[in-house]
Every structure is written in structure tokens, then in C-alpha cells.
Recover the amino acids of this structure.
């Protein structure tokens, strides 16, 4: 007998800052409403367009340390001088319900998720078409000073050097086709995991 068993997966999307992953994840969620998005905790200050609880949970360094110490984070990392982490409980809840979750996190976090969840995690790296285009996007975004842009570009080079150990690399050239490609990765992984053969 072949028994159908739902198993949630964790899709990890990484890209350098300005690599466009926020927009890609938003579009993906619209197309796949059952895909739960993890809201990270961070110690960095909110940007003017960001909403508390929707984009991030903004917390103090002390509150972040408490979350870390009490084992409430699936992974955490220091990125651009601030701390970021993924709360564990909402992920466990979604997976237990057979729902897939999407995490938008950096390469250090992706490594920890791979270590903890193994093949249950699907790692996708969004590559900018070129470093020059990435620089332009960061400048146009106007959320960072020129010094911060320079720092983020240097970090982008380091992060892109990690793309090869991700399961998939997608060049984010045109939004619609990037979303289509990421969506087909999600669909293919779901087909793989939703049937578990068991004989009685
Ligand atoms: P930003 O400050 O531009 O929103 O994010 C900076 C970097 O931190 C991005 O690469 C983003 O993916 C990463 N990031 C956001 N949330 C998390 C998280 O929970 N864990 C980790 N490891 N990285 C995160």
C-alpha cells in the first residue's frame, strides 16, 4: 500500500543585500499561499518602510541574547554589525502541519539550517546578474550610506563565493522569470516529498 504522508520542507533563500530576495519571496508567497514565511528577529533598527512583526521582530541585543540562550532560535548570525535569527517554534509548528516554510537568511544561517535539518532543507541562492547591477540597486534603494553600500558590496562578494554549496543557484535577471524558476524548484521538491511509500 502506498500511503500519502505530508512532510513540510524548509526553503532557504539567500542572496547578497540588494539581490532582490524580498520581492521574490513576496511574489512567491502570493503564488503559493500555503508557503509560510518566517519572520526573523533582528537587533538592527527598522527602515522607514518596514513594519514591526511583518518584516522583522525588532529587539534589543539583550532580548536577542535571551532568545539565543534559551534555545529559541533555529539559527542565528551576525550580519553587517547586527544580530539576526530565525525563531524555531513557528517553523516546527508549520512543519508539523505539513506546511512548507520559506526563510530569507544569509549564508551563515543557511549552513546551520542544512546542519540541523539535512535534506529537509532546500537551499536556493539568488545571484545578481552582475556586481555592477547590485551596486546600482543598493544605491537606488537609498537605505544605506555610501560607506554602507561599499561594505555591503564587499560582503556580497564573500557571500557569492558560497553559492556553489547551495542546492540551486538562480540568476535574478528578470523578476517574473526568477519567480517562475524558484517556484518550479518548490513544486519539484514538494512532489518528491509528498509521497512516502510504506508496505503493510
Ligand atoms: P537586511 O538588514 O538587509 O534586511 O538583511 C541583511 C542580511 O541578513 C540579509 O542577507 C538577510 O538575508 C539576512 N537575514 C535576515 N534575517 C536573517 C535571519 O533570521 N538569520 C540569518 N542568518 N540571516 C538573516
Amino acid at each position: 500500500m502506498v500511503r500519502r504522508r505530508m512532510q513540510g520542507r524548509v526553503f532557504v533563500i539567500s542572496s547578497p543585500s540588494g539581490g532582490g530576495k524580498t520581492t521574490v519571496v513576496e511574489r512567491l508567497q502570493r503564488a503559493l499561499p500555503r508557503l509560510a514565511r518566517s519572520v526573523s528577529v533582528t537587533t538592527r533598527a527598522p527602515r522607514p518602510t518596514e513594519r514591526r512583526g511583518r518584516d522583522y521582530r525588532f529587539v534589543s541585543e539583550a532580548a536577542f541574547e535571551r532568545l539565543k540562550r534559551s534555545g529559541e532560535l533555529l539559527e542565528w548570525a551576525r550580519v553587517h554589525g547586527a544580530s539576526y535569527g530565525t525563531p524555531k517554534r513557528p517553523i516546527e509548528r508549520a512543519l508539523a502541519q505539513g506546511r512548507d516554510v520559506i526563510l530569507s537568511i544569509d549564508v551563515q544561517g543557511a549552513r546551520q539550517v542544512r546542519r540541523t535539518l539535512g535534506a529537509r532543507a532546500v537551499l536556493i541562492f539568488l545571484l545578481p546578474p552582475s556586481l555592477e547591477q547590485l551596486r546600482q540597486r543598493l544605491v537606488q534603494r537609498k537605505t544605506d550610506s555610501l560607506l554602507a553600500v561599499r561594505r555591503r558590496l564587499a560582503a556580497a562578494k564573500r557571500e557569492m563565493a558560497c553559492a556553489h554549496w547551495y542546492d540551486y543557484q538562480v540568476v535574478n535577471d528578470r523578476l517574473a522569470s526568477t519567480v517562475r524558476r524558484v517556484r518550479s524548484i518548490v513544486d519539484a521538491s514538494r512532489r518528491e516529498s509528498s509521497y512516502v511509500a510504506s508496505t503493510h
Summary: The chain has seven helices and eleven strands.
